[in-house]
Amino acid sequence: MLNSVLKDAIKKRDETLSILKGPKFEQIIKQAKSNWIDFSPTKQDIVAAGIDSSFNSTKFQGAELWAVTAVSVKSDGEILVDLHEHGLDSNPELASLASKMEIDACKESVDSTDLVLMDGSLYSQFLTRQKSLADSLVNTITKKNNVVFISKTSNTKKQFEDLGAIAGDIFYYNHATVSSGFSKIHEDSKFGNDMIISSVFARLSESLPLIKIELLGSGYTDNDFKLILNKILKNSVGGYPYALKLAHNNCKISGKDLTKLASIHGLSNEIGSREVLG
Length: 278
Description:
Blueprint: H1 2-11, H2 13-21, H3 25-35, E1 36-38, E2 48-60, E3 63-74, E4 79-89, H4 94-107, E5 115-119, H5 122-127, H6 134-144, E6 147-151, H7 169-176, E7 181-183, E8 186-188, E9 197-203, E10 211-216, H8 222-233, E11 236-237, E12 240-241, H9 242-251, H10 255-264, E13 276-277
Parallel strand pairs: 2-5, 5-6
Antiparallel strand pairs: 1-7, 2-3, 2-13, 3-4, 6-10, 7-9, 8-9, 9-10, 11-12
């Protein structure tokens, strides 16, 4: 059956791609080019920390053996915050716990660094799935206004809706631009006036992958985002902040880690499923 699907996909490749681009593709690309602001950032010497979390679990005869971690790591590898929890429960709220731990790590980092980089998006991580944490998040961010959310991917479809865009905004900016710079600032007030999200798509150097940068609040200027790009450029690798890469590597919970955890608890021979959730 798979071979049949693949053969059919080859035949319909151009047709499928044309659906993705949509009938107004060229018009959207023209608008994306118009939105783009060319800018070559210059390195600024600051102390930055990256924050990320991870959770994983494995089924155990009606329950789950789970672990959650969150870390804050400086660009030089120094770990500022290392949080972790594990347990054996049924239906644990791991995503919510991971988000809470990220906020806790952020709280402990805002006073000791110039810039706190949070992995992911305000949309997906907190203000939609984790609404109960919104107040805590807002209070943490507004303490010193040095918290920035950065993501390598984005599914938001906000900027070209009126043109009938089918794909996400990042798709069109990827096709429209190759130079360093950023898109015009987009403000989204769907969560209320105290939770406005201001965002841009940015590229640190020519032909590097785009990243999405989000700030909480409104009224930001192009110069505000230029300053952020200057700050994250020095310790970035391949267009992405190295502190966030370190945070990801330090907090990741693998299937092997869960196997070790099960062994410590004497559960290795009783695990009812090898499927690892994450």
